[in-house]
């Protein structure tokens, strides 16, 4: 007989499915606690090339063998099942060396296998998002059921985008609802904080994770809501959602609703992004790859909906399910030259798009070549610089300063970015060798001394600075020296912290004080792409020294968010929020700045408040039904932006305790008022007396700053006083209806008795269900997946004569062992 592989055994006979069902019955009799239902498993796996691995996973303790090969078996699923069951029962004392010679450990102890079978199943995973005027409210809900006969820990984990604030959380366990509330960041009494520490995996996201104890047979539903302002980049807005339910989910849905104030120019969904690496989304024809499973429906010129609802067989590997980043891009038709203003309940938002010709720039690249940059880092830096230098425009001027214990200059002064000079600069960077110390102070002061004499109001001056470590001098000393040398902040500084060893916190302070920002470059395969992408985002400056000025008679200046911008880049958007003065009937503003064609001066604009006031149906957000502030989305946008800006501003005032405390106290009070989980607040959930809700692990924070040094006081809740006068109402007595007391007794005839045979055959059968892996279940869970029970009745399969014979043989075998 021709031999065949284990995977092809189950496909070798047309009646393999029915034989598999018979084998399930035998398995149940052989070991009543070992529940393997082929009724649901076989239709999915028999025709799957992964059947071999998935099936053996249920029997092997260690399946990730480096050289896994199975000895060929005869083409009979029944025999296959019996042999595997015998291996488990007899601990493979005599069959293991012949069947699986390459596996170091095949047999799983009975108790370990039963433990694997007692896992959890994600029954539902749904995400609903409401995007209104660039402000996204996202609600993620998941229902997980415990199929074990005893209480088990259930884990709920969500990756939320960096910069998003959690606004609501609740969970329903065994029919009981537990609401979280935003409070001061601390643990007290019988409460647990959700949001104490930070875990930044995946990249540019934070992890919200909670573990609770769920009774046997019960389900836990978790609902998390967060908000984030979408930023315009390269001419469009991007909404990103991290999806990782841990296993395939029967009820899976992502539903995104978009409402904007102007016409939507396009809505698309790029291909799903797996992992964090920056990869190309362009197909062989030069077009952007799209997510073919997403359904886009433009319901009107200003509204659209996007749905993503993959079936289980479209959700990736059965063991892990789908793990991806779901992305939506959309564009909005630009408004008038002065931008658009929207008002609701005296709060306003001013949205301005200023896409003009690109300003010429003077830029110096300050590159770290110290000893720590050796090997892969210096190679990735050279790759990134090759792309960046090629992107320079002919009207630009540039230079390169590389440094270790001392700085070195490529040219003595700024050089025109012509083709010949760019090629020479690439060769210079390509010859850089790592070695020496890290003299950041002298390198930056050298760059500033070359840039400041060439300052010109018609050009943009900037430093592009990359380092992977700590400087030889004190970070605060360097920051003070640079600030003094950068007179009036005429040079914008953009810092790249390369890898985990870089002093990212100090770089944020350094760049914040010098009209720029810092970015962390993750030390991975795409580090070169990260560097070049950051440069691309700052290389197209359209306006410098932009200032939006409002009439003090109509706008409360104390409530305004940031209204001065050193540099504005093409493809971006300016957003300003504030509160109108009481009784204001109009908004008057001036827009001033410098562009490539000369001064920008849009003045005298006066907007009638009535014409820009939003309607109630435009601001009603159903995802915040439990929030007292759900009706005023503009006010929440203002609060969000204010908190975000002040958390950034605290880095600029590092060392000034008084100013820092003032900033953070305002963040703290607004966080409590608007239910935002920020670095100063957290969500607390009260346990029940029965101890059913036990929070094992929680992670959510977006800053390494030590906020515990400030002990802010939670303001008392407002008290409403009511009159103490009590009015007593006397109700007339209820009418009494008398009914007769006679009771009639009905006698029913006896029910007929049916006699049934007393012999009973019981099979305990269920199915194997692949699911998500969790680290707390160690390698066992990761290899074998999650399981759930599904009943299969033995009456279907115990009627064949062959079964009687096999059952007797197997039971005799059990008795002998």
What's the structural blueprint in terms of helices and strands?
Elements: H1 6-9, H2 16-30, H3 38-45, H4 51-57, H5 77-89, H6 96-99, H7 110-117, E1 120-132, E2 135-146, E3 152-161, E4 165-173, E5 176-184, E6 191-194, E7 205-214, E8 219-229, E9 232-233, E10 236-243, E11 251-259, E12 264-268, E13 294-297, E14 303-308, E15 324-332, E16 340-344, E17 347-352, E18 361-368, H8 376-390, E19 397-403, E20 407-409, E21 415-416, H9 419-430, H10 440-451, E22 460-467, H11 475-485, E23 492-498, H12 504-512, E24 517-521, H13 527-538, E25 541-550, E26 555-556, E27 564-569, E28 574-580, E29 586-595, E30 598-608, H14 609-612, H15 616-619, H16 633-652, H17 657-673, E31 681-686, H18 778-784, H19 801-816
Parallel strand pairs: 1-11, 18-19, 18-22, 22-23, 23-24
Antiparallel strand pairs: 1-2, 2-8, 3-7, 4-5, 4-8, 5-31, 6-31, 9-10, 10-15, 11-14, 12-15, 13-14, 16-17, 17-28, 19-20, 19-21, 25-27, 25-29, 26-28, 29-30
Helix pairs in contact: 2-3, 2-5, 2-19, 8-9, 8-13, 10-11, 11-12, 12-16, 16-17
Number of domains: 3
Distance from N terminus to C terminus (CA atoms, Å) equals 32 Å
Do you know the CATH architecture of the largest domain? Sandwich
Subunit organisation of the chains: single chain
- As a percent range, the share of strand residues is 25-35%
Q: How many DSSP helices?
A: 19
Classification by helices and strands: alpha+beta
The value of Rg in angstroms is 34 Å
Domain VIT: 106-228
Organism: Plakobranchus ocellatus
Protein name: Inter-alpha-trypsin inhibitor heavy chain h3
Domain VWFA: 362-538
């Amino acid at each position: 007989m021709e031999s065949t592989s284990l995977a092809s055994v189950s496909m070798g006979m047309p009646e393999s499915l029915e034989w598999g069902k018979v084998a399930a019955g035998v398995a149940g009799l052989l070991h009543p606690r070992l529940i393997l239902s082929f009724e649901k498993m076989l239709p999915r796996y028999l025709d799957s090339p992964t059947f071999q691995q998935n099936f053996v996973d249920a029997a092997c303790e260690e399946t990730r063998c480096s050289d896994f090969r199975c000895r060929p078996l005869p083409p009979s699923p029944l025999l296959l099942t019996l042999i595997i069951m015998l291996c488990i029962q007899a601990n493979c004392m005599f069959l293991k060396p012949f069947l699986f010679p390459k596996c170091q450990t095949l047999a799983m102890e009975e108790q370990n296998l039963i433990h694997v079978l007692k896992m959890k199943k994600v029954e539902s995973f749904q995400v609903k998002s409401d995007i209104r005027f660039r402000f996204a409210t996202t609600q993620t809900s998941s229902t997980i059921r415990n199929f074990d006969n005893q209480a088990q820990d259930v884990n709920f984990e969500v990756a939320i985008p960096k910069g998003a604030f959690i606004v609501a959380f609740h969970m329903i366990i065994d029919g009981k609802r537990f609401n979280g509330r935003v409070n001061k960041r601390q643990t007290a009494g019988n409460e647990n904080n959700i949001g104490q520490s930070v875990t930044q995996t995946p990249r540019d996201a934070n992890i919200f994770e909670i573990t609770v104890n769920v009774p046997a047979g019960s389900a836990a539903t978790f609902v998390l809501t967060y908000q984030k302002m979408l930023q315009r980049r390269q001419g469009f807005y991007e909404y990103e959602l991290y999806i990782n339910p841990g296993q395939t989910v029967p009820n899976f849905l992502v539903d995104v609703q978009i409402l904007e104030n102007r016409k939507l120019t396009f809505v698309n969904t790029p291909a799903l992004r797996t992992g964090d690496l920056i990869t190309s989304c362009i197909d062989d024809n030069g077009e952007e790859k799209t997510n073919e499973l997403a359904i886009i429906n433009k319901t009107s010129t200003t509204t659209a909906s996007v749905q993503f609802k993959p079936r289980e067989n479209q959700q990736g590997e059965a063991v892990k399910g789908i793990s991806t980043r779901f992305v939506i891009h959309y564009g909005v038709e630009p408004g008038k030259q002065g931008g658009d203003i929207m008002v609701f309940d005296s709060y306003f938002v001013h949205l301005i798009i200023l896409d003009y010709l690109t300003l010429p720039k003077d830029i110096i690249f300050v590159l770290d070549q110290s000893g720590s940059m050796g090997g892969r880092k210096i190679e990735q830096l050279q790759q990134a610089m090759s792309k960046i230098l090629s992107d320079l425009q002919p009207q630009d001027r540039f230079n390169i300063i590389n440094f270790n214990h001392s700085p070195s200059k490529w040219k003595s002064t700024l050089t025109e970015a012509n083709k010949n000079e760019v090629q020479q600069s690439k060769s210079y960077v390509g010859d850089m060798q790592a070695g020496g110390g890290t003299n950041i102070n002298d390198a930056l002061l050298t760059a500033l001394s070359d840039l400041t004499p060439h300052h010109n109001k018609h050009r943009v001056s900037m430093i592009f600075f990359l380092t992977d470590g700590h400087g030889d001098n004190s970070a605060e000393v360097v920051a003070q020296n640079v600030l003094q040398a950068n007179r009036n902040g005429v040079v914008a500084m953009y810092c790249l912290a390369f890898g985990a060893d870089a002093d990212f916190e100090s770089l944020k302070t350094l760049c914040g004080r010098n009209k720029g920002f810092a970015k962390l470059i993750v030390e991975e395969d795409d580090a070169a792409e990260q560097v070049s992408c950051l440069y691309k985002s700052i290389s197209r400056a359209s306006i410098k020294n932009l200032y939006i000025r409002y009439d003090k008679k109509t706008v409360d200046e104390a409530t305004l968010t940031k209204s001065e911008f050193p540099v504005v880049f093409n493809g971006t958007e300016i957003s300003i929020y504030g509160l109108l003065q009481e009784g204001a009937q109009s908004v008057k503003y001036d827009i001033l700045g410098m562009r490539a064609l000369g001064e920008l001066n849009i003045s005298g604009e006066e907007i009638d408040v009535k014409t820009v006031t939003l309607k109630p149906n435009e601001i009603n957000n159903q995802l915040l039904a439990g929030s007292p502030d759900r009706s005023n989305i503009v006010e929440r946008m203002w609060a969000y932006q204010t908190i975000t800006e002040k958390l950034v501003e605290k880095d600029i005032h590092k060392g000034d305790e008084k100013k820092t405390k003032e900033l953070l106290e305002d963040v703290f009070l607004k966080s409590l008022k608007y239910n935002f989980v920020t670095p100063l607040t957290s969500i607390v959930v009260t346990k029940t007396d029965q101890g059913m809700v036990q929070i094992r692990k929680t992670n959510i924070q977006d800053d390494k700053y030590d906020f515990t040094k400030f002990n802010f006081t939670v303001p008392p809740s407002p008290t409403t006083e009511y009159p103490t006068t009590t009015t007593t109402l006397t109700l007339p007595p209820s009418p009494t209806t008398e009914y007769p007391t006679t009771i009639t007794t009905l006698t029913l005839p006896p029910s007929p008795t049916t006699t049934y045979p007393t012999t009973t055959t019981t099979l305990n059968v269920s199915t194997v269900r692949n699911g998500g892996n969790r680290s707390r279940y160690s390698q066992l869970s990761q290899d074998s997946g999650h399981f759930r029970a599904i009943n299969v009745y033995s009456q279907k399969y115990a009627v064949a004569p062959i079964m009687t014979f096999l059952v007797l043989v197997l039971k005799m075998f059990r008795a002998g062992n």
